[in-house]
Amino acid sequence: TCQDLTCPPGSTCRMEKSTPRCVPITGTCQDLTCPPGSTCQMDGATPRCVPVKLTCQDLTCPPGSTCQMDGATPRCVPKVAPTCQDLTCPPGSTCHMDGATPRCVPVKLTCQELTCPPGSTCRMEKMTPRCVPITGTCQDLTCPPGSTCHMDGATPRCVPKVAPTCQDLTCPPGTTCRMEKMAPRCVPVKLTCQDLTCPPGSTCRMEKMTPRCVPITGTCQDLTCPPGSTCHMDRTTPRCVPVKLTCQDLTCPPGSTCQMDGATPRCVPIKVSLTCQDLTCPPGSTCHMDGATPRCV
């Protein structure tokens, strides 16, 4: 058939007596039948079949998808779920997501969104905030929680309450101010011996959670210190303090000497080469060096 025959430019295939033949092309696109996916265009005086360039206008996508060009080819791709960013609402309304769908709904205004002129205040009437004239005094005005009424000239107004702090509270001696549940309160001061200065001849002791000065009695003769410590008088008070040993306090055995290891004295071997001059042999024997060691033989 003509599908099995490739004709040169300027010719086309025709079936003649059941045989495909290439014949010169004459005429216009009306005389040329193009295969699917192509269309006829005049190339000079010659009609030719050329591929059809499809666009999204030529493609019908199924529900839930939309057409996008992939290079030069239109393709159906899933739709992206719309959000409130894709929707412009008219004045007096705002966008809210209804499930997965953005919708414009009326804005529910309150007195917080309405600024009233001097001499008027906002009141809700049938779910709508309105400015109405103010008459009367603070007795006629009910303020919301966290605010109080003050007269602004001849007009009562609701103003925010100022939370009290410890700066607003004077506590009696022996107490101090602390904030408890957003309120300042006076609580007893818990003193320690660090807060009390005792006179000479006395010292501080805690008695029933209270620091007190008590007389100091005794000297180092009255105090027995544990091993490793000794008694020193701290002003008029005998106290046990750690003993700091030195090499003068340590007696090392023969062949060793004392060295300080940090703050601790230790006995270490003496590295000295002895000779026969250092050795006294008994009668009837004499000294000989055995390697580096003198011996009596």
Question: Main sheet, how many strands, which sense, barrel?
Answer: 2 strands, antiparallel
Helix run count: 0
Described by the principal axes of the CA atoms, the overall outline is: flat
How many whole angstroms does the radius of gyration measure?
Answer: 55 Å
Number of DSSP strands? 22
Helix content: under 10%
Q: What would the average pLDDT be, to the nearest integer?
A: 81
Secondary-structure element string: EEEEEEEEEEEEEEEEEEEEEE
Strand order of the largest sheet: 1-2
Structural class: mainly beta
What percentage of the residues does DSSP assign to strands (E)? 35-45%
The poorly predicted ranges are none
> N- to C-terminal separation?
132 Å
List keywords for this structure.
0% helix; mainly beta; 297 residues; two-stranded antiparallel sheet; single chain
Chart the SSEs and their pairings.
Blueprint: E1 11-16, E2 19-24, E3 38-43, E4 46-51, E5 65-70, E6 73-78, E7 93-98, E8 101-106, E9 120-125, E10 128-133, E11 147-152, E12 155-160, E13 175-180, E14 183-188, E15 202-207, E16 210-215, E17 229-234, E18 237-242, E19 256-261, E20 264-269, E21 287-290, E22 293-296
Antiparallel strand pairs: 1-2, 3-4, 5-6, 7-8, 9-10, 11-12, 13-14, 15-16, 17-18, 19-20, 21-22
